[in-house]
Amino acid sequence: MDERIFVKENVRRLLIKEYLMEEARVAGFGGLEIQRTPLGTRIVLEVERPGLIIGRKGAKIREITEKLQNNFGVENPTIEVKESPNPYLNAQIMAEKLASALERGWHFRRAGHSTLRRIIEAGAKGAQIIIAGKLTGDRARTEKFMSGTIKYNGKPAELVDIGYATAKTKPGIIGVTVKIMPPDVKLPDEINILPPPPEEEGEESKEKESEVKKEEVNENAQGAESQGNKTDE
Predict the structure, then answer these.
(1) 185 exposure class (CB count in 10 Å sphere: 0-12, 13-18, 19+)
(2) What does pTM read for this prediction?
(3) Same domain assignment for residues 59 and 131
(4) What is the CATH number of the domain that holds 15?
(5) Is residue 205 situated within a structural domain?
């Protein structure tokens, strides 16, 4: 029984995500987070243009809240809309943009290279774009565009942001996958050499000053001895 409840809950979450993705497509869907709280269900929706999903005087967001409560059985839903800090570093937003460009008739190579360039210019450490489907003929194939560093396995692979979208074209459905390595990620193979702390630098300068003073004292002593020898003569 517990397994059935678990599967049912995951299916409902997937349906909610698909519905919110469709509603927020115009605003630039960038991610979704669902949290269960004692007061109800908190949904955090990340978009590129929050004004389009909120609507005039909050009419659009109230409509979405009512549909979530009535159609999907979400208890006391609270939707929080936040703006994506940098859309070009959000894999889901860039995947949606690329799929939209393919639907408008862009050549897949032009669209792939343009999207990749924008991601790298935004400061990403690496990016990979995979376009699969009927690109030029009746036979489906896969094209990849890559720049920088991308991790595929191990712990660093969890740091890669992944987005997926589909483009509906005349030959058929084209799948678009975008992977982005964020600029602020610390990878295990990166080594930074730190400068010596200020205390050590101060000790070295003191040692140098003491050596200089000793040399001055020795020179003065030698000068005094030479003058004493001249007076004796």
Answers:
(1) middle
(2) 0.73
(3) no
(4) 3.30.300.20
(5) no
Last residue of a domain, one of 84, 104, 125: 84
Answer yes or no: do 36 and 119 share one domain. no
Answer yes or no: are the C-beta atoms of 28 and 81 closer than 8 Å. no
CATH number of the domain bearing residue 159: 3.30.1140.32
Angle between helices 59-71 and 2-23 (to 10 degrees): 160
Residues 127, 178: Cα–Cα separation, whole Å: 7
Q: Is residue 198 part of a domain?
A: no
- pLDDT tens by residue, 65-123: 888 888 888 888 888 888 888 889 999 999 999 999 999 999 999 999 999 999 999 99
Could you list the residue range(s) of the whole structural domain that residue 100 is in?
88-181
Total domains in the fold of the chain: 2
**Are the CB atoms for 89 and 122 separated by under 8 Å?**
yes
Q: 174 and 166 in contact (C-beta within 8 Å)? A: yes
